[in-house]
Amino acid sequence: MDRMLNKVLRVGQLYDFYNALLTEKQRDCLNMHYLQDLSLAEIAAEFSVSRQAVHDILRRAEQTLEEYEQKLGLAARYSQERKLLVEVVGSLQQLPYSVKTLPELNQAIITLNSLLEDTREV
């Protein structure tokens, strides 16, 4: 169960970064299977192809996403930068109250927190 969930999360993350680089059919199949939770049979019926054809399209699309990530590393970079942002915000929030009341620092903390909230969707 964990392995399948990890795969769904991984494909979803890579899809967010690289979907524009896939063919339209690959995008549609990934979207239908992973985001809309349609079965291979349902997707096959939609495209008037066999389940095996859908399976092959999904496998190739997943492999393509992994190849783009291997070459470009956008998802890994995003994760690393997000972790750093969390660490910076944590460090700033641990500062003494007298320092955190400085308007500039307080605004920086608010801005960093808003960045973290905006990036949770990706």
Automatic annotation (TrEMBL):
The keyword Nucleotide-binding does not apply. InterPro entries: RNA_pol_sigma_r3/r4-like, UPF0122, UPF0122_fam_protein, WH-like_DNA-bd_sf. Keywords: Coiled coil. The keyword Coiled coil applies. Residues 51-78 form a coiled coil. Belongs to the UPF0122 family. Might take part in the signal recognition particle (SRP) pathway. This is inferred from the conservation of its genetic proximity to ftsY/ffh. May be a regulatory protein. HAMAP family: UPF0122. This is UPF0122 protein SPSIL_022240. It comes from Sporomusa silvacetica DSM 10669.
